[in-house]
Specification:
Layout (H helix, E strand, L loop, with lengths): L5 E6 L4 H12 L4 E8 L5 E3 L2 E3 L4 E8 L25 E3 L7 E3 L2 E3 L5 E3 L3 H8 L3
Antiparallel strand pairs: 1-5, 2-5, 3-4, 6-9, 7-8
């Protein structure tokens, strides 16, 4: 990595605490910049036949290589964007019609699920560049 480089590492609750220790060792605690939180969609979770607490967030650790590191704004704001949320393309349950056309290709959702977006929303997304 260049002397003025930076690294973003995304992880969930399974290994975040381990990854933080390794990153501190590799880059130095003093080069840790931030723990960015990415919200997940809140869903009721059933694990091993009982309701469980859903995983709410992932973390992104940001480290600089050195004092010479800096961030350059590489983000492009999308119209009507809701910041900080990742959204699955499918949801549980079946709805009809099951198929949607993505970039000219007809696709079915996974078994027992339906596409979360209407065909019109998918069409609009395809026009964003």
């Amino acid at each position: 990595m260049a002397d003025d480089g930076s690294i973003f590492v995304r992880q969930d609750y399974h290994f975040g605490h381990y990854i933080k220790l390794v990153m501190d060792e590799v880059f130095g605690k003093e080069n840790f910049q931030n723990d960015l939180i990415v919200n997940r969609i809140k869903k009721n979770v059933i694990q091993q036949g009982r309701q469980s607490i859903p995983t709410a967030v992932d973390s992104i650790f940001l480290y600089f290589k050195s004092i010479n590191s800096k961030l350059i704004n590489v983000f492009k704001k999308l119209p009507n964007e809701k910041p900080g949320y990742w959204h699955a393309m499918d949801s549980s349950g079946i709805r009809y019609p099951r198929e949607r056309v993505f970039w000219g290709k007809v696709m079915l959702p996974p078994d027992g699920r339906h596409w979360a977006l209407s065909q019109e929303s998918i069409r609009k997304m395809g026009k964003l560049n």
